[in-house]
């Protein structure tokens, strides 16, 4: 999904919660985070994969967030973009949305079929 929200989609670290454990740095395969003596920082914004919340969901201190909340409309936007580009939408993202009652599986099927 890279490019869909380029420049908008990137993690934000709440330094008041961050324990500088480095988990996000180790977890992210795209090199979005940089680790130094001062701690971990978000440096490579444009490398973040659009729609990925992996670092946020796995952060042991809940210090990472993203600028756009996950709403039904946002999930629909991601599903439609994926369909238009002939790509599969990110399973972890969609499963999170279903699990947290943001969208239903039926709504998701309707969106994938272009029924809404």
Automatic annotation (TrEMBL):
GO MF, one example: metal ion binding
One of the Pfam families matching this protein, by short name: Fer4_6
Protein name: Ferredoxin family protein
Keywords: 4Fe-4S, Iron, Iron-sulfur, Metal-binding
SUPFAM superfamilies named in the record: 4Fe-4S ferredoxins
Lineage, highest ranks first: Bacteria, Bacillati, Bacillota, Clostridia, Peptostreptococcales
Organism: Alkaliphilus pronyensis
Residues annotated as domain 4Fe-4S ferredoxin-type: 9-38, 39-69
InterPro entries tied to this protein: 4Fe4S_Fe-S-bd (IPR017896), 4Fe4S_Fe_S_CS (IPR017900), Fe-S_Ferredoxin (IPR050572)
Gene3D superfamilies, sorted: 3.30.70.20
């Amino acid at each position: 999904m890279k490019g869909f929200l380029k420049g908008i989609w990137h993690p934000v670290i709440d330094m008041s919660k961050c324990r500088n454990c480095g988990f996000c740095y180790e977890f992210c395969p795209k090199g979005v985070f940089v680790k130094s003596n001062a701690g971990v920082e978000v440096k490579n914004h444009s490398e973040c994969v659009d729609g990925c919340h992996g670092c946020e969901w796995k952060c042991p201190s809940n210090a990472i967030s993203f600028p756009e909340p996950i709403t039904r409309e946002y999930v629909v936007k991601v599903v439609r973009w994926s369909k238009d580009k002939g790509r599969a939408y990110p399973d972890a993202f969609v499963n999170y949305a279903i699990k947290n009652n943001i969208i239903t599986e039926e709504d998701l099927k309707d969106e994938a079929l272009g029924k809404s």
